[in-house]
Amino acid sequence: EIVMTQSPATLSVSPGERATLSCRASQSVSNSLAWYQQKPGQAPRLLIYGASTTATGIPARFSGSGSGTEFTLTISNLQSEDFAVYYCQQYNSWPVTFGQGTKVDIK
Amino acid sequence: QVQLVQSGTEMKKPGASVKLSCQTSGYTFTSYGITWLRQAPGQGLEWMGWISPYNGNTDYPQKLQGRVTLTTDTSTSTAYMDLRSLRSDDTAFYYCARIHTSAWFFDYWGQGTLVTVSS
Fold first, then answer.
1. For chain A, which residues lie within 8 Å of any Cβ of chain B, measuring from their own Cβ?
2. Minimal CA–CA distance to B102: which of A62, A30, A32, A96?
3. pLDDT tens-digit series, residues A56-107
4. What is the 3-state secondary structure (H, E, C) of A27-87?
């Protein structure tokens, strides 16, 4: 199965700044990459799919890029509600697999 | 609006079974697959399998083959996950989610059910 590796494990960012999260696949997943946000005590929420398509209702400050094995989630102008754990997921190969998550916390 | 509402917290002893439900609304149940995932405390997400409410087709990861069964009731738009021979490392939050129509990512999620396995 494809192993997804996220970095860093924790990212400390000040409100209003930009956060850049990375996700690497052990082999190419084309653009079959999704990003989810999970807040404490809540289920994950879909942010991005197709590596760069923003899901319905997601603010424009969230953007995704990349293809193949290297992907990035960028959160511009970080808001208080954006402090959470972010997961990437590949769905190009069976079984689908997730990264271990990046926690974005307040600097 | 699309909603997936899961059943409540469960506490089980090792060796027992648990059956969780996921009641859906706001969309045509048979038009989208349902997947189940779990998350042990402080850990990442583990995919547990999927089911097509349209024809009942299922697939499970090899790790859980033989212990997990997914079913649906199209009359009530409800999906079920049955996990047998529970062990302490099955303690986790369990989530159902709707599979997007065109690809294997998950666009709507249930709120999660905590299953605790302890003697």
1. 32, 34, 36, 42-46, 49-50, 55, 87, 89, 91, 94-101
2. A32
3. 999 999 999 999 999 999 999 999 999 999 999 999 998 999 999 999 998 8
4. CCCCCCEEEEEECCCCCCEEEEECCCEECCCCCCCEEEEEECCEEEEEECCCCHHHCCEEE
